[in-house]
Specification:
alpha+beta; two-stranded antiparallel sheet; globular
């Protein structure tokens, strides 16, 4: 279940516990949400977790409410990086930063948030994967996203674009 366009894309809670799970090589981090906000939090996360389904989320530290200015547009929807990432041969998940740049570009161009970021940059209302792909190719100076390589001008531009996108996402949230 994905959040609808009218539902919030984030929820807040308090960091409450940290637990090392050595057998799986992971850390479990717990957040507490007031009971009255539990359903909204579950809606954002897509419902109760299922053992066979992973839901990737982003976590950001918030300032104290007394220090936070109200957002300019509180109805704006946000989206994080895609929920599923490719697996390595041993079944471990590949982190976005460890993926090849063309793969990163392919993933981001298919996310609605990145498409909105691109549309906002070029001043158009169309936020589609095709417009995002065209923009990335033009911005990086390549014929295909597969030509984006590390330690080249196209790779440097891609890295800059991803950094600007992450900054934009931080401002939107």
């Amino acid at each position: 279940m994905q959040p609808s366009n009218n539902s919030p894309a984030a929820f807040k809670g308090t960091y409450s516990d940290f637990k090392l799970i050595k057998t799986r090589g992971v850390v479990s981090i717990s957040f507490e949400v007031p009971v009255e906000q539990a359903q909204a939090a579950l809606d954002v996360l897509g419902g109760m977790p299922l053992a066979a389904t992973e839901v990737w989320c982003a976590v950001a530290r918030l300032q104290k409410e007394s220090e936070v200015a109200p957002p300019a547009n509180s109805n704006q929807q946000t989206e994080t990086l895609p929920r599923q990432e490719p697996s390595t041969p041993d079944g471990a998940k590949t982190k976005f930063r460890d993926m090849r740049m063309p793969n990163q570009a392919g993933i981001l161009c298919n996310t609605e948030a990145f498409q909105r970021f691109v549309a906002e940059r070029v001043g158009i209302s169309d936020h589609s994967d095709a417009s995002a792909v065209d923009y990335v190719r033009d911005y990086c100076g390549v014929k295909t996203r597969g030509d984006i390589r590390p330690r080249t001008p196209s790779g440097d531009r891609w890295t800059k674009l991803v950094d600007e996108y992450r900054t934009w996402m931080h401002e939107v949230v």
